[in-house]
Amino acid sequence: MEKSHASQAAGASPDEFVIRPAVAEDAEGHLRGMAVPPQWHGRGIAQLLLDAIEKHLAGRGCTRISLDTTEPLYRAMRFYEKNGFQRTAKVADFFGMPLIEFVKHFPPR
Q: How many domains does the chain have?
């Protein structure tokens, strides 16, 4: 998928980054996972991956994207908020850690 574009822009192997989108319902997409290895932090890779997944899901008619993250990942939470995601009131338990939901809405295409 678009993962290769982010990898090519970074000069890295596509296998070094993880991105797992899913279309949950007709107009809702869910980002099931996104990871950038520490050696690639600070190079804009997460932004490239998020842009690619938003484009991918919006192209499939999604007007809402949700994702979950854990409290220890403060840097990730700030990144998602900077990119228009808002924390919801939904909090689940993930092996003893709070799993926090974030959502972002898009206008219909």
A: 1
Residues 89, 109: Cα–Cα separation, whole Å: 28
> How far, CA to CA in Å, does 55 sit from each of 3, 63, 65?
12, 11, 11
Q: 């090519």: which residue's tokens? A: 8
13-41 tens-digit pLDDT: 545 666 666 666 678 888 888 888 888 88
Most confident of 14-28, 50-64, 81-95: 81-95
CA-CA distance, 60 to 14, in Å (whole number)? 23
What gap in Å lies between CA 75 and CA 73, rounded to an integer? 5
Domain around 30: 3-105
The C-alpha atoms of residue 69 and residue 47 are separated, in whole angstroms, by 16
State the helix-helix crossing angle for 3-10 and 45-59, rounded to 10 degrees: 160
In residues, how long is the chain? 109
